[in-house]
Structures are given as C-alpha cells and as structure tokens.
Amino acid sequence: MIERRTFRAMGTEMELLVDADGAAEALDSAFDGAEAEFHRLEALLSRFREDSELSRLNRDGAIDAGPDLLRVVALALDARERTRGRFDPTVHDALVAAGYDRSFEDIAPESHVRCQAPDVSAGGVSIEGTRIVLEPGVRLDLGGIGKGYAAERAAELLALAGPCLVNAGGDVATRGGAWPVGVETTGDPLTLELRGAALATSGRDRRRWRRGGRELHHLIDPRTGAPAETDLLRVTVVAPDAVEAEVAAKALFLAGAGAARAEADEAGIPAVLVTERETALAGGLA
User: Fold this and answer.
1) pLDDT at 76
2) Considering its fold, how many domains does the chain have in total?
3) What is the DSSP letter of 105?
4) Which of 116, 125, 184, 187 has the most CB atoms less than 10 A away?
5) What does the DSSP assignment read for 196-241?
C-alpha cells in the first residue's frame, strides 16, 4: 500500500511516498525523520534565513562549516567545473538584483524598480579542510542543489520503511521499486518510470515576477548576471541522484534547445526538452 505525507519546506510543497507493508509506528517514524531532515537542512542552507549557516558564511566571508554545508558547497563547486560555469553557486547577488531577495511566496508580482545585473564571480570560493572561504564580494546561493541534496538525504531515511519516492517541489529521489512520474510537455503529459533513479526540472515558466516592466525568472545565466534568455521553456533530466539531475537540468537549460539536445545525446543524459512549440527527447529517451 502506498502511504503519503505532504508538508511545506524550502519554499515549496514536499511529498513523501512509501510502499509500506510494515508497522504503522515504523512508517510514522520514517515519515517524521524524512520531514525533519528537510527542516534541518533548510535551517542550515537557506539564504533567506538570517540565522542559517549559509547566511553566516555570506556575511562573514569565511567559517568553519558543518558537514552538510561543506558537502553541498563542494558539490556545487564540482558542478561548476564540470558544466564549465553554467551551474554557478556565486549567482547570489544576481538573484537579489533581479528581485529574488526573499522567499518566492513573499515576492511582489510587480515592481517598478529597475534591476541592474551585477557581474557574477567565476571563482572566489575555496575549501580548506572544514573551512569555507569566500573572496570579498562573493556570496553563495545553494537553493537548487541544496534541495536536491535534501531530497536524497530524506530518501535515505524514508527507505527504512520501504521503497519510497521523495518529491521536493520537482526534485525527485527514489529508493527501491518502480515509480511512474509525469512530465509536462507541449502535448499530453509524458510518464517516465524511475527505478533507483532521480529526476529534476529547470524552467522559466514557474517562478516568475516583473520588475521595471520586464518579466523575470530565477534561473540566472552566470555569463550575463541576468535571468537566462533561452528558447527552452523547461528541461527535465533523469540521473542517478537528485543532485546530479538538478545540475544537468540547469546546465542543459542554459545551453538552449539545439545544443542541449546534442549534449544530452552525446553524454547519454535522458532529458525532456520543452520549448514553447515542441518537445524533444534526448539521451536515449524514446
């Protein structure tokens, strides 16, 4: 029997599913542990919480970090190198300049303030043992990759009760079983079956607002310091874990439809590429 729990964390709706046939007490404990893990990691990794470990790093420029922040920053820096800068955690100030300076539900849908895109650092972050050091003027945003990391951590805890799926606002992690997941396209929804895999979607059709007469979104192009201009509406990627899916979806989104399809095919990354007019499958999806 599939059991379900929903709650809000990290500015989005979370969904936990378990194919459980054990005791109700063990199931409740697994649900409680997975939900608590999201809240714990949000308290550490959110740039919207002044008391978070990430906010302290951004204010002080250097801290002796706990294991979770240290791990997520290391994953983000590795992703920046592997994607040749398309995925870049130093876009914090660009997001703020675009108007994404608070949790999304608190952003005014329209403002007449004109936003100037700042330069985005192409470096400026180092890890020395357990110490993270930012160069002057560098601040980090770990929103997407932090959510993927939290989904994986929650899935590990939820799997104690049975095969499970964790849906963290579109970042999906699974353990055991076969899980059908619907993906939006320009036509009928597409269903992908996840078996020990993860899924993430990056797009410009969800988190949107207006500033100075311009419609903006939350996916910053590090090359320009502004919301990305691309012919893609959204990209969904299947990967071994939710962190890798999140990174690949963002990198392919910034590449644009033609380059993204070629890159996904060459690297064997299963991807659904959606523009305003059509949907393309890449990386082995048929």
Assistant:
1) 97
2) 1
3) G
4) 125
5) S-EEEEEESSSSEEEETTEEEES-EETTTTEE---SEEEEEEEESS
